[in-house]
Amino acid sequence: MPINSASGASCQINLLQPSPSAGSPSIRTPCEEYDHQTTLDPTTGAIQEMVTIQSQQASPFGILIDIKPTAYSSLKQQQQQQQQHPTNPPQSSTHDHQSVIIPEDYACKIILDGIEVGSYQHPKSESYSKKHITRIVAADGLTIQALQFAKLNLVDPDDYDDDNHQSLVSTDPIDRICEDETVIKALGTIQIDVFRCTLVAQPRCITTATTTIVPPVKPPTVTSNQMKFSERSKKARLSTSAGLAQQETPRDPPSEMRWHYQSIDPFPFLQFIFKYKPRSILESEGILFAQPAPTVEFKPDPQNQIRSEQSSSINNHHYCNSRNDELEAHDHKRVQVEDDHGRVEDKKPKIIDLTGLDDL
């Protein structure tokens, strides 16, 4: 997980799988992280911790955030020391460290593909600094939406109007191509912005002498999971979006109290940015090695194997008979050769009478 060394803050994306046991929490699988970089936002001055992860086409996920109450003071103290002593920052004493480092309240805004979907309030009074976020709760507390990776919905732009990008066969407002440049540029990004703030606890429903004021009911947030994108866009290579699932009703009633912002800084002091990409892009960028082609194990048909063995046996039999005939013929010729030259025959020499020639 990307960790900010100065503040000790960290963040992690976990894939969620259903537990085999009923009633047990989901199984968390941390996403593999690559290419960790630490940069500085030139506009806001926020520290940015960026990593790349492999995207998943259809999977709920969670965001594990660990923000120490002293994160802001620790980070600012280190920055001041680096500015005063850029080459050799001095080591602060324990007394100085305690006098400068103070706890703060924080707000973590969650931004999926350029769309802010919710925020998490972390008061300094909480002793446990870790929070695993899997769902976004509506302001009224009556509905929830789970964080979810989904397949990017790509469409042919020829099927949509050129002027308003609305579908030619549907009047549903959601059935249109997204032309929001903020969303298109941010596709493939999960971002958590950490702000310093001051929190106060207030009742969720405020009751007065005459009426009860409840938080306004807002329509569900439309994220990139519900949007359509042109298949000709450069972002079409991503194949995955990160957004919210459909609304559900929570099993537990909403809490009576909720945190409100008394004040909040205009800019975040820390950002965690996750760039999610499919494996094909990670391989083309040299971040991951290409996977070897799977080996296919050939299992012959037993009947074909039996017929093959029988055919092989017959061929071997014919070959052996032919070879024996050849050897016998060859041996027979060899014996004949020995009979002609190797053995002395039991015959008398033929005598030719040449005496008559003298009389001629």
TrEMBL record:
Lineage: Eukaryota, Fungi, Dikarya, Basidiomycota, Pucciniomycotina
UniProt region (Disordered), positions on chain: 1-31, 73-97, 217-255
Protein name: DUF7918 domain-containing protein
Biased composition (Polar residues): 1-27, 238-248
InterPro entries hit by this protein: DUF7918
Domain DUF7918: 138-287
